[in-house]
Amino acid sequence: MSIHQRFKELFFALNTNGAQFSKKLKVSSTSINKILQGNSLPSSKIIIPLIENYPEVNIYWLLVGEGEMFRDIEAFKKATNSNNTIIHNSKLTNSNNTNTGDNTVIQSENDSKLKELKAEIKNLKIEIKSLKKEIQIEQTANQLLRESKLILEESKSVLEGNIATLENQIKDKEMIISLLQGK
Question: What are phi and psi of 127, to 5 degrees?
Answer without folding.
Answer: -65, -40
